[in-house]
Amino acid sequence: MNNQTQITQKQNEENMLKCQFASHICFNQAEMLNYFSWFLSIIGSLLVFTPSEETSFLIIIPGILGIMTLVSHNLAKNNVKWGAKMRNYFDNEVFGLEKPEYTAEVTHSIWEKINSIENKYSRLCQYSIHATDQSDTPGMKDWYTFPKNYTTSEAAVFECQHQNYWWTNKEYNIRRIIYLIAFSVLIIAIIVGIHYSPIKTLACFLGFAVNLYEDFSESIRCHELMVSMKTILDNPDAESNLSLISQLQNYIEKRRELLILEIDLIHKKNAKKWSTLYKSIFNYQHTHD
């Protein structure tokens, strides 16, 4: 397991920065595809308010939109899979975890994907690997920062894991509000739609309901993982316990594999502020210990 100096140096090696950039691209593409999937399901839902009772409006058009919604959703999940795979690999290399699942074959497939993304977005990649979270457009450099010196490798890795949790939790709280609004809109729209035509309402809202159900299921799983992470992070002995650090890392990696994505615009807007806030909270807590 790497110490603080090794983590700082390793994460800023060019190949590791490119790995983070490729992961970021995959997560951003997943976010866009997820938005498109929601857009299609919302369009399908709005058809319930059309006056036509033609078969095309009752079944065919909602059915086509439903299939397109499913395809977009699955493409988003595939991008999340790759984004998580690359970011988990990044942690493995930067932390020096030496996990056995990163065989030569697996590592080769990861780097094939990274190189493909780098070649496609070469100019953006060059900017991103030289920018930090304090840049106008946040980049990949100095992904993990240390507010103090950590004397053991375990404590340094644990601090990085704490940062992973903290940033994820900031985004997750925003998403919970969005889900509450979306669920409320669905219930109200279905109640109104049933007044017009129960069959038409079922056909039109099927895509929206499936989308909401899948995202809500992922959200529940995310909540369970976040609670498990918090339990370990609150354990005063965790930063010196290899078993707990390993378990925490597994929770972090499983969380990344869920289609619960950060909102890139919010991240870009708040990166500087949240980074400063994290350091302020850390300094306050340790001043009053």
Describe this structure in words.
The structure is a single chain. The protein has nine helices and no strands. With 289 residues, the protein is mostly helical. Helix 2 (14-46) packs across helix 4, helix 3 packs across helix 4 (104-120) and helix 3 packs parallel to helix 7 (198-233). It has one domain. The longest helix has 44 residues, at 153-196.
What does this entry show, briefly?
The chain is mainly alpha-helical. It has helices at 4-11, 14-46, 55-95, 104-120, 122-128, 153-196, 198-233, 242-256, 264-287.
Explain the layout of strands and helices.
Layout: H1 4-11, H2 14-46, H3 55-95, H4 104-120, H5 122-128, H6 153-196, H7 198-233, H8 242-256, H9 264-287
Helix pairs in contact: 1-3, 2-3, 2-4, 2-7, 3-4, 3-7, 6-7, 6-8, 6-9, 7-8
How much of the sequence lies in strands comes to under 5%
Low-pLDDT residue spans: none
Shape descriptor reads: elongated
Terminal Cα separation, in Å? 28 Å
Cα gyration radius (Å): 22 Å
Query: How many helices does DSSP assign?
Result: 9
Helix content: over 70%
Mean pLDDT: 84
Task: Give the number of DSSP strands.
Answer: 0
Order of helices and strands: HHHHHHHHH
Q: Can you summarize the main beta sheet?
A: none
Q: Structural class of the helix and strand makeup?
A: mainly alpha
Question: What tags apply to this protein structure?
Answer:
289 residues, mainly alpha, 9 helices, 78% helix
